[in-house]
Amino acid sequence: MRDPYLVLGLTRSATADDIKQAFRRLAKQYHPDLNPGRPDIEQKFKEVNSAHGLLSDPEKRARFDKGEIDATGTERPDRSFRRAWQNAGRGPGAGGTRGAGAGARPGGDTGDDPFADDFFNDIFGATKRRYSAGAGAGVKAKGSDVNYSVNVSFADACLGAKRRLTLSTGKTIDVNIPPGTRDQTKLRLKGQGLAGLGGAGAGDAIVEVLVDSHPLFTRKDDDIHLDAPVTLQEAILGAAIKVPTLDGQVAVRVPPGANSGTTLRLKGKGIPNPDRKVTGDLYVKLVVMLPEKPDAELTAFIERWSKGRDYDVRRKLGV
After folding, report:
1. Three-state SS for 20?
2. Do 222 and 271 touch, CB atoms closer than 8 A?
3. Where is this region: Disordered (predicted)?
4. How far apart are CA 72 and CA 66, in angstroms?
5. Are 25 and 17 spatial neighbours (Cβ–Cβ below 8 Å)?
């Protein structure tokens, strides 16, 4: 896999927010659902997902920046070999001595590590790989976790949904988004990470859910809030109007004499909370709107009506 910074179009100085924004932009651009029948786009989507999984994890990002792991999150062979060599009592600091006939090495003395310079890396590459493989024999270690992200709409996050996720292994699974899921919630999928060593279990897939904002609704705990425009006549005379909810339109009654700020409560039309086994409410705040175009008749009526009437709406402000 390519350098994850290049995949996301970032530099190594990128912040966590930079990484998140780049992922959201590219994930939407290359999402397989938006590009059906395009295996090349699907491959790019997998690459973007894997890059975000590595860079969004502070520990893995730091290890990648230090060169300890590669772009797939796998330990670099040269580093694992050095540790195995040193642990076996052969590396620097192990107390070993060099034979008098060892001779000089190109590039200067490198101690007891026979693979410390590029010259011997080239000559002993095959030996080094065999040694590295042997050093891990009998070792049991759980596989690493892998991070992913999925985008969901506001409604899907509130009501629950499924999202298809392509893992870095190429496997495709369906992820259940529970009702009431909040933005940046992390779901743990057991055993869907990297394979373990020596028969140990696989790691987990950690899926961060990114919830899109809604043009009309805002969320407060398990409740939803909505501003609903009403006409002047609806506010004065009262009326039945339709308003949107998470699962379709419903009719509500605007009481006569309603003002901007008057709030209607629709019980049980909010967000399900499976833990508390309750559903929140929908709060509809009325906003009285004048006609978009000036109305001469309305203007003349208000001029006549307002004469001699005490109608000071700012009295409570003390001005």
Report:
1. helix
2. yes
3. 51-112
4. 14
5. no
